[in-house]
Amino acid sequence: EPTFDMRAWIENPPLEGAAAMWALIAMLITFAVKIPAVPLHTWLPAAHVQAPTVGSVILAGVMLKFGTYGLVRFALQMTPDAFREAGVVVLVLGVVSALYGAFAALAQSDLKRLVAYTSVNHMGYVIVGVAVAAITLDPSVRTVALDGAVLQMFSHGLVTGALFLLVGMIQDRAHTREMGELGGLLKTVPMLGWTFVLAAFASLGLPGLAHFPAEFQIFLATLSASPAAVVVILGIAIIAGTFLKALRETFLGEPRQRWQSMPDLSAREWLAVGPLLVLTVGTGVAPSWVLGIIHRTTSALAL
């Protein structure tokens, strides 16, 4: 009997063989645009640059996850055999996305474009985690990979959402996002500066902050399933260089005369960015509170 019940499709995949592979290819193209994955990523930096701050926060924090949700919920579960056959291709796509996003971020002078390209990098790690889950035959490795991928989706929303809020706050004050026009802001707006430092360190995967447990699990599973793909870990070093360069140009040194009277964070701004930073630290220090929720689902998917 024809049905749209996803549970029925998962229990008894309606397609197999060539039909399943064509369906998977169609889904991969669709989800790659939404995630976005290289080479279908070009819309994202342009969208972020044109969007208001709240638009960028929602886009990064929520909407990009629809693509990776689709990989896990539809592609991985409804065409499992086809995904296993194509898993290496998807894995390479994830590695390329992560490394390209990191290198592209390093080349930016606009803070918002920089953060946008770090999204390509971080979502590349999610693709790697899902691909490893598809390739491996070991249920425990599959669970670790999916735990890491889903936790990375969650932590990316926190960290990148906070970064876009902070970049928006800088733009509201300075009317520019060009790092070369800023400088020395840590002395004029110390609270804004230190919150940006915290969010930047979280984005580069510093232990004790939200991305670390997610990326650690993804890399651990990748090492077990496809050791060559661990080259993706280079993305962390490149992102570290990206944010250290951004912090040096934007916040360190002597402040320009025109930024001397710049106001620091207001109570309203703290109310917006504070909860994201608290969750960022909480998830990094004690990820079990959210991993427990994630693991109940991913362990079922790993059967």
UniProtKB/TrEMBL annotation:
<keyword id="KW-0472">Membrane</keyword>
<dbReference type="InterPro" id="IPR003918">
    <property type="entry name" value="NADH_UbQ_OxRdtase"/>
</dbReference>
<dbReference type="GO" id="GO:0012505">
    <property type="term" value="C:endomembrane system"/>
</dbReference>
<keyword id="KW-0812">Transmembrane</keyword>
<dbReference type="GO" id="GO:0048039">
    <property type="term" value="F:ubiquinone binding"/>
</dbReference>
<keyword id="KW-1133">Transmembrane helix</keyword>
<dbReference type="GO" id="GO:0008137">
    <property type="term" value="F:NADH dehydrogenase (ubiquinone) activity"/>
</dbReference>
<feature type="transmembrane region" description="Helical">
    <location>
        <begin position="270"/>
        <end position="294"/>
    </location>
</feature>
<protein>
    <recommendedName>
        <fullName>NADH-quinone oxidoreductase subunit M</fullName>
    </recommendedName>
</protein>
<feature type="transmembrane region" description="Helical">
    <location>
        <begin position="56"/>
        <end position="76"/>
    </location>
</feature>
<dbReference type="GO" id="GO:0003954">
    <property type="term" value="F:NADH dehydrogenase activity"/>
</dbReference>
<feature type="transmembrane region" description="Helical">
    <location>
        <begin position="191"/>
        <end position="212"/>
    </location>
</feature>
<feature type="transmembrane region" description="Helical">
    <location>
        <begin position="20"/>
        <end position="44"/>
    </location>
</feature>
<feature type="domain" description="NADH:quinone oxidoreductase/Mrp antiporter transmembrane">
    <location>
        <begin position="18"/>
        <end position="235"/>
    </location>
</feature>
<feature type="transmembrane region" description="Helical">
    <location>
        <begin position="114"/>
        <end position="137"/>
    </location>
</feature>
<dbReference type="GO" id="GO:0042773">
    <property type="term" value="P:ATP synthesis coupled electron transport"/>
</dbReference>
<dbReference type="InterPro" id="IPR010227">
    <property type="entry name" value="NADH_Q_OxRdtase_chainM/4"/>
</dbReference>
<feature type="transmembrane region" description="Helical">
    <location>
        <begin position="88"/>
        <end position="107"/>
    </location>
</feature>
<feature type="transmembrane region" description="Helical">
    <location>
        <begin position="218"/>
        <end position="244"/>
    </location>
</feature>
<dbReference type="GO" id="GO:0015990">
    <property type="term" value="P:electron transport coupled proton transport"/>
</dbReference>
<feature type="transmembrane region" description="Helical">
    <location>
        <begin position="149"/>
        <end position="170"/>
    </location>
</feature>
<dbReference type="GO" id="GO:0016020">
    <property type="term" value="C:membrane"/>
</dbReference>
<dbReference type="InterPro" id="IPR001750">
    <property type="entry name" value="ND/Mrp_TM"/>
</dbReference>
<comment type="similarity">
    <text>Belongs to the complex I subunit 4 family.</text>
</comment>
<dbReference type="Pfam" id="PF00361">
    <property type="entry name" value="Proton_antipo_M"/>
</dbReference>
